[in-house]
Write a structure and sequence with these properties.
Blueprint (H helix, E strand, L loop, with lengths): L8 H23 L4 H16 L3 E7 L4 E8 L9 E3 L3 H9 L3 E3 L23 E10 L2 E11 L6 H46 L10 H14 L5 E4 L6 H10 L8 E5 L5 H9 E2 L11 E2 L1 H4 L4 E5 L6 H13 L1 E3 L6 E3 L3 E6 L3 H6 L5 H7 L2 E4 L10 H15 L6 E2 L1 H9 L5 H15 L4 E2 L11 H4 L7 H19 L4 H7 L4 H10 L10
Parallel strand pairs: 7-14, 7-15, 8-11, 11-14, 16-17
Antiparallel strand pairs: 1-2, 1-6, 2-3, 4-5, 5-6, 9-10, 12-13
Helix pairs in contact: 1-2, 1-4, 5-6, 9-11, 12-14, 16-17, 17-18
The protein binds adenosine-5'-triphosphate and magnesium ion.
The site of adenosine-5'-triphosphate has 15 residues, from helix 6 and helix 14.
């Protein structure tokens, strides 16, 4: 078969259509994967296959100003060893000037460094080298270089144009890759920063208080934080149970894993199981796709079951199994899911009464109550009240841009004599309201809500009979003694200089829940 001359119209047509199909393959290779290196490698293979490139490589400019080989084809040595500085060799010059360079005869070019083809003997055939810049926003970020067999009649302008188009497709891919990487880095940075903020926010030190009961609570928290033990946090509404749960998590080895909360009271019975355990597609009407439950979402971290006392009996059975075996099934699935999750539960309910009434399973209670932490009500730690008042005043004056300096003595007296049924939350709300109402630098009694305006403040102290006052005092003394002895009645009796029999009688008489004090 006679070889067609390059200027022959049929040959020109064949070459152009080969170039077009190459460009198509190149763009497919670059858009087919998010792995830039393998996409570039594929591009160089396409060039070798359709255009007979002997060697080819893509170099990219690094942060340190060096050019590294990102992908190569047909090289005689490891591409990792090849480095260029800007302005060095042909490739360095192309990147520096952002202009293509053509070397028709490599053997005659002194600037040709030949790092990619270090062979003792000179190549048998003459090669041409074409190097085009990879441009992003008109600045070179690298270069595409190809070695071709020397042909006297090669149209170098057309070749440069063609490899320039390939290089611009490569530039697009590099640009996208960099945008993705930047986004990823931004998200990671943001994530680390948020985690740090969370850690600080939920540090032990963010829980204000230095009274005896709170110090005892800190001690228990630090004992249990480092372990995987299930914790039951008890205490009235608004005492800070959720804060305690957070602090335990963020001071545990699981701190960098998720903390997932489930408000058992807020979820209707029909939803709680699917929330906890997740479901498979089609498990029930409306289950259009598979959904992970909170147990799975908390993998490696902590699951906080708030208001556990409100959970229904059937869910209690399932929960018991997870606690015992650390495994469960998603709704509508037979596949068993294993989880590594630390459980923290909280309740303001009297669990012993719930067990007696048959609304809470005793076996589940024992599984949850491995280590219990009691968060004392505010009225039992009035010593902390001033600290909390200062803390909240500062917090809210800052938040609402007020310059409140102090709180008047009568206002403090009102806060001190109130019984705080809503505990710290109620105090927090009270002070936010006071800060909003206050138009001077001092918070006064009249900035406090009506519920606090009774008693001493308004001079309407309720009269109490002597026997009631004595009974109240006696009850307080017994509770204090039980607290000190962590619920040990014999020791408490000794502390109060009485007998265990008398103490037991009084505990019953005043309906004191002695178990509450057992740690
Ligand atoms: N010791 C404390 N120091 C600072 N802020 C506190 C403290 N205790 C509670 N708080 C604040 O009081 C509010 C109520 O706390 P938290 O939600 O933890 O209470 P809770 O016991 O979970 O209440 P509930 O039983 O009603 O859910 C929160 O805004 C919390 O920031
Ligand atoms: Mg809570």
């Amino acid at each position: 078969m006679a070889k067609s001359r390059p200027s022959d119209p049929a040959a020109v047509h064949a070459r152009e259509s080969r170039r077009l199909s190459t460009l198509l393959e190149v763009s497919q290779a670059l858009s087919g994967t998010l792995n830039l290196r393998s996409a570039l490698h594929r591009v160089l293979e396409v060039l070798a296959k359709h255009h007979g490139t002997v060697r080819s490589m893509v170099t990219l400019l690094q942060d340190n100003g060096e050019l590294h080989v990102e992908a190569s084809d047909g090289l005689d040595q490891s591409p990792h060893a090849i480095r260029y500085r800007l302005g060095e060799g042909i490739i360095g010059k192309v990147v520096e000037s952002s202009k293509p360079i053509v070397v028709p005869r490599v053997s005659r070019e002194p600037a040709f460094l030949s790092r990619a083809a270090k062979r003792p003997e000179l190549p048998k055939e003459e090669l041409s080298f074409i190097c085009v810049p990879i441009l992003i926003n008109r600045r070179a970020v690298g270069a595409l270089g190809v070695d071709l067999k020397f042909k006297a009649d090669r149209n170098y302008d057309r070749s440069v144009q063609f490899y320039g188009i390939v290089a611009s497709a490569v530039a697009q891919a590099v640009k996208i890759q960099r945008l993705i990487e930047e986004d990823k880095r931004k998200l990671l940075d943001e994530n680390t920063q948020l985690r740090q903020e969370l850690k600080e926010r939920y540090d032990f030190s963010s829980i204000i208080g230095s009274s005896g009961p709170v110090r005892q609570m800190y001690e228990q928290m630090s004992q249990v934080a480092a372990t995987n033990t299930t914790v039951l946090i008890r205490g009235e509404s608004g005492t800070g149970k959720e804060m305690v749960a957070h602090a335990i998590h963020y001071n545990s080895p699981r701190a960098n894993k998720p903390f997932v909360k489930v408000s058992c009271a807020a979820l209707p019975d029909s939803l709680i199981e699917s929330e906890l355990f997740g479901y498979e597609k089609g498990a029930f009407t409306g289950a259009e796709s598979r959904k992970k439950g909170r147990f799975e979402l908390a993998e490696g971290g902590t699951l906080f079951l708030d208001e556990i006392g409100d959970i229904n009996l059937t869910t209690q059975v399932k929960l018991l199994r997870v606690l015992q075996e650390r495994e469960f099934e998603r709704l509508g699935s037979t596949e068993t899911v294993k989880v590594n999750v630390r459980l923290i539960a909280a309740t303001h309910k009297d669990m012993e009464r719930a067990i007696a009434a048959g609304t809470f399973r005793e076996d589940l209670y024992y599984r949850l109550n491995v280590f219990s932490i009691f968060v004392p009500p505010l009225r039992e730690r009035k010593a902390d009240l001033l600290l909390l008042v200062d803390h909240f005043l500062e917090k809210f004056s800052h938040e609402h841009k007020k310059s409140i300096k102090r709180i008047s003595t009568p206002a403090i007296d009102m806060l001190m004599s109130y019984h705080w049924p809503g505990n710290v939350r109620e105090l927090e709300n009270t002070l936010e309201r006071a800060v909003l109402m206050c138009d001077s630098q001092v918070v006064h009694g009249h900035h406090l809500p009506p519920s606090l305006q009774t008693a001493e403040a308004s001079g309407t102290v309720t009269r109490v009979s002597l026997s009631d006052a004595v009974a109240g005092f006696e009850k307080d003394l017994i509770q204090d003694a039980l607290k000190t002895t962590r619920g040990n009645r014999a020791k408490a009796a000794r502390l109060l200089d009485t007998t265990e029999r008398v103490l037991n009688y009084k505990v019953r008489k005043y309906a004191i829940d002695a178990r509450r004090f057992t740690a």
